[in-house]
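Dig into what follows:

_____
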Amino acid sequence: MKGLFLSKGIFPERYFASTVDYILEIQQQDGSIPWFEGGKTDPWDHVEAAMGLSIGGEFKAAENAYAWLKDTQLEDGSWWAAYRNGAVEEGDRRESNFVAYVATGIWHHYLITRDSDFLRRFYPVVEKAVEFVLQLQNDTGEIFWAVDANGTPRRDSLVTGCSSIYKSLECALNIAAELGEDIPRWYLARERLGRALRHHPEFFDRTWESKTRFSMDWFYPVLSGVLMKSAARQRLRARWDIFVEDGLGCRCVSDRPWVTIAESCELAMALLAAGDHARAVTLFSWLHQFRSDNGSYWTGYMFPDRAIWPEERTTWTAAAILLAADALTEHTPAARLFTEVNINPEIGKGRIIL
């Protein structure tokens, strides 16, 4: 299929059933979800894949994925950058946005299931993760991207990573509020991070080459709710012709002829967040030419060579497809997680309204 045009209320469950099944097939007995069979598992993409399972109604498998995170969480609330076959694969660092993303996944699962016992059981995981991340917040609001093996902060920050953390803090605050907790410090940390992202580009990419050539730096501030309404639309318009290849999708990097399916899905959700429904539908419709017979999706496509590259069908790409389809059709109660900012204005001010 080369075109799949989705609209509200029309989620093709039979079509995406095999996409969900693909994630299930790759999930390991311990609950971890590698990139592909025999591949590594990193905390961020593991959570992304778990969200795909929740959308597909595979609640037990999704909860097993979060249980794996609970079982492997370090004492300080973090996880190593990657694991493989039950062992640490990349033990040189722990990345802040990877750690924070557990809050997004836990909240996403709760929005679909409304399982309060699940939320209470995993709140300590979220709390420890958020506390680890906020220890890496600089005085100027941005959050350092990682610590090394000894716990020493790597003192620079990424727009994409911090934008992802911004959304995760929204989710963490909502989790806390749902359980009757009010944590003003988390709220203030999110406010400071938002100001840094909106008004201080000089706080990011201080020690390395600017990451503005990466499409995620372009659209993640919209996807995460840092920028909304006219500011979001203006940002997406400004670099659309640089990153988007008509009929194919979104480039991963502006100066390379390579479109990636997961980034294209995320851009579709960012377009929805900015109120550009028509382009979101059209962009998503292009991506199914990269679908495999078993419902999985190839990671990327080199368009000058008309070649799939790399020859990998990643679980997180399958999950991104499901997240975008859900956002377009509003199939589950979590459909608007990445297209709206839903945070009670009383949260963080000592007077939650429950």
Observations:
- Strands lie at 82-84, 87-90, 93-95, 146-148, 153-154, 244-245, 249-250, 258-260, 300-302, 307-308.
